[in-house]
Amino acid sequence: MKHLYLLLILFTSLANAEEIGGQYLKQAEAGDSRAQYYLAETYYSSGDDKQAEMWAEKAAKGGDVDAMALLSQIKFKHGDLAQAKGLAQQATVADSSPGAVMLARLLVNTRAGKTDYPQALSLLHKVAENTEDDAAVDARLLLGLIYANGVEVAQDDVQAAQWFKQSSTLSRTGYAEYWAGKVFQQGEAGFITPNKQKALYWLNLSCSEGFDTGCEEFDALSGE
User: Which residue, of 48, 135, 158, 213, has the fewest CB within 10 Å?
Assistant: First the structure.
């Protein structure tokens, strides 16, 4: 279930509620912690945070460490950064790669406390190396954002573009660049300040990579 880091920030993909139940519900209700995690993740993607949190809590209690990482994402989304950080740390210690990406995200956000970019970069590089792990998509994208943003590390658009391209290689051509543009367009409190020029730059790159939605968003933002 590959998912981009940005989907954990502001945007979610839609899923059919019946498909959620049909695919995972029976096993989840029978106590399968991994099925509970997948059900929670799909509810989260569909925008139903209440159901997502309920099933993620069940999965985490059953020993699924990735469910703990998902709980961290949910807490982050709703502004409880202290609890989000604690959950991400626990998940990381338990060797959850989504937990490591989530912890890195919190370590570069000033709202979550003192930042630690060296630790965040170390965590992300480790996850990014494993191309068989879905979390590598998110790790590579966050690395790109860090270098594109240029806070506490030197801004390096060349290195950022390389990380975005590597992320898109594991998902869809131009996709990471598109989400980078959207994040710079809207910003993320404590991490990225909205910047129209940077948004246009990355959306244009997404478009040049052949991602049609990147072209549409570039044209829309250019006209504002």
Answer: 158
- The answer to whether residues 175 and 141 touch, using CB atoms and an 8 Å cutoff, is no
pLDDT digit string, tens, across residues 139-173: 999 999 999 999 999 999 999 999 999 999 999 99
Contact 190, 149 (CB under 8 A): no
Give the pLDDT of residue 21: 58
Strands (E), 12-89: none
Query: Contact, 104 vs 120, CB < 8 A?
Result: yes
The CA distance from 16 to 78, in Å, is 23
Q: Do 113 and 85 form a contact (C-beta atoms < 8 A)?
A: yes
Instruction: Give dist(CA 185, CA 200) in Å, integer.
Output: 8
| Contact of 137 with 167, CB cutoff 8 Å | yes
State the Cα–Cα distance between residues 190 and 149, nearest whole angstrom. Answer: 12
Q: Which two tokens stand for residue 167?
A: 């992320």
- Give burial (CB, 10 Å; 0-12/13-18/19+) of 57: middle
